[in-house]
Design goal:
By secondary structure, the chain is of the alpha/beta class. The chain has one domain: Aldolase class I (TIM Barrel), CATH 3.20.20. 28% of the residues lie in helices and 20% in strands. Strands 1-2-3-4-5-6-7-8 form an 8-stranded parallel barrel. Strands 9-10 form a two-stranded antiparallel ribbon. Strand 2, helix 2 and strand 3 form a beta-alpha-beta unit. The chain is globular, with a radius of gyration of 16 Å.
């Protein structure tokens, strides 16, 4: 089965077009103000409108960090999301509540450093439809974001696991290491953000193309 791809943190039309032309399966829009990749609901709607019907063929994922209902409502009033990605400290109860409120499948993100970090995954079985495993920042890391920090973790921790849900691997992936990450982890989906940027918050269309080509060559 072909490995599928998500390009996250898109905020300009050239990069979005590169993701679509390169065969990305999903694109991510960040609705988290501290992130350098943040877009407002209005900006996201305009970005999708600018590329037209080409965006209909991919899953449109909204990334949120502990969102309140007002933010969720504001985004969904303007942006036709297919999936909500929760990257904060949302409890299983809150995840389920967001699923009911939005009517969309929910992807819960888990930050991983060692095997102990998988302990809470089962608590979300009935609340989340998707899982994403990202690298946990070091305890002493200053100004670390909930994601998109360009850090990896030991991919062997994921090898051979069956989570009962579709799942993605993220964290420090780029065109040079994604094939090895897939081989070791067995990931059916890979998610990239900082690994296709020329600077934080500024995607590089050429790097997006190279990343997608590397995945498709696996």
């Amino acid at each position: 089965m072909a490995v599928r791809t998500k390009i996250c943190g898109l905020n300009d039309a050239a990069s979005l077009r590169a993701a679509l032309a390169g065969g990305a399966d999903a694109i991510g829009l960040v609705f988290y103000a501290p992130s350098p990749r943040v877009v407002s609901p209005e900006q996201a709607a305009a970005l999708l409108a600018e590329v037209g019907s080409a965006v209909d063929k991919v899953q449109k994922v909204g990334l949120f960090v502990d969102p309140d209902d007002a933010l969720l409502d504001a985004v969904l009033a303007l942006v036709p999301l297919d999936l909500v990605q929760l990257h904060g400290a949302e409890t299983p109860e809150r995840v389920a509540e967001i699923g009911r409120r939005t009517g969309l499948p929910i992807m819960k993100v888990f930050k991983v450093r060692d095997a102990e970090d998988f302990g809470a995954v089962g608590d979300y079985d009935s609340a989340a439809s998707w899982l994403l495993f990202d690298a946990k920042a070091p305890d002493d890391a200053k100004h670390a974001l909930p994601g998109g920090n360009g850090m990896t973790f030991d991919w062997r921790l994921l090898a051979g696991r069956d989570w009962g849900h579709p799942w993605m691997l993220s964290g420090g992936l780029d065109a040079t290491n994604v094939a090895e990450a897939i081989r070791i982890s067995g990931a059916p989906w890979v998610d990239v953000s900082s690994g296709v940027e020329r600077a934080p918050g500024h995607k590089d269309p050429a790097r997006i193309t190279a990343f997608l080509q590397a995945v498709h060559a696996v």
